[in-house]
Amino acid sequence: MASPPHVVAITGSLREGSHTRTALREALSGVEDAGGRGDLLDLREYDLPPLNTDDEETEGVETFTERVREADAILLGTPMYHGSYSGVLKNALDHCGFDEFEDKTVGLLAVSGGSFPITALDHLRSVCRALNAWVLPHQAAVPRSNSAFENGEFVDEKTAERVRILGERVVRYANIEPDPDCFESEQNVGAADD
To answer: Does a structural domain hold residue 73?
Structure first.
C-alpha cells in the first residue's frame, strides 16, 4: 500500500496572530480529510537570511529546503502586501529551486485585509510555473481577513470550505503526471545554477 501524500504548507507571514497561518491550518485539515499527512512550515522557525548566492547556506536554509524537497505536494499561503505576496515568502522561495518544486503539485492561498488578493495568487502561480510545478486550478482567497476570523476560526463556512477543498485537492492531485517543462522554466536560469 502506498504511503499517504505528504504535504507541507509554507506560511508567508511572521505575525504572531497571522490569519494566513490560521487559514493554512484549515487547508491542512482538508489534507487530513483526504487521507494525506500535512505539516506547517512556519518561516519564523528557520534562519533564512536574505538570499545571497555568494554566501554558504545556513543550517536553517538546509533544513527548510530539505523539508520542502521531501514533500509530495506544497501549499503556499501569503498575506497580500502592495498587490503581491509577502517578501518573507519570496525570500523562502528564492532559497528553493527546481529540486524542491519541479513536478510537484502546489496549492495557493492568499489572505487580504481588503478585497480579493488575486494579484498575489497570480504572482505565486507565475513563480511556481517557472519552477515547473503543477499549480492547482483551484485556489483559495480570504478577503477582508479582519472580519473573516473570530477566536482563531473562520466566521464564514463557505470560505472555510473553499480553503479545506484546497487541501483536499492538493492530496488528490499530488501524484498527477507532470506536464512538459514550460517556457518560463527555460528562462529561469537563476533557479538552476545562479
So the answer is: yes
- CATH label of the domain that carries residue 104: 3.40.50.360
Which helix (H) or strand (E) covers residue 175, if one does?
A: none
Which of 124, 131, 125, 121 lies closest to 100, judged by CA? 131
The torsion defined by the Cα of 100, 101, 102 and 105, in degrees rounded to 10, comes to 130
C-alpha to C-alpha distances, 107 to 25, 86, 94, 160, 168, nearest whole angstrom:
13, 16, 18, 15, 10
Range of the domain at 95: 6-193
Query: Is residue 23 in some structural domain?
Result: yes
Give alpha helix (H) positions in the chain.
Answer: 19-33, 59-70, 87-94, 98-101, 118-130, 145-148, 157-172, 183-186, 189-193
CA distance 74 to 107: 6
Residue 31 C-alpha cell reads as 489534507
Q: How confident is the model at residue 42 (pLDDT cuts 50, 70, 90)?
A: very high
- Cell 528562462 sits on residue: 187
pLDDT of the residue at 172:
97
Please tell me the total count of domains within the chain: 1
* pTM, full prediction: 0.91
Strand, coil or helix: what is 20? helix
Q: Tell me, what's the pLDDT at 143? A: 84
Length of the chain equals 194
The phi and psi torsions of 28 (rounded to 5 degrees) equal: -65, -30
> Does 57 map to a domain?
yes
SS3 state at 119: helix
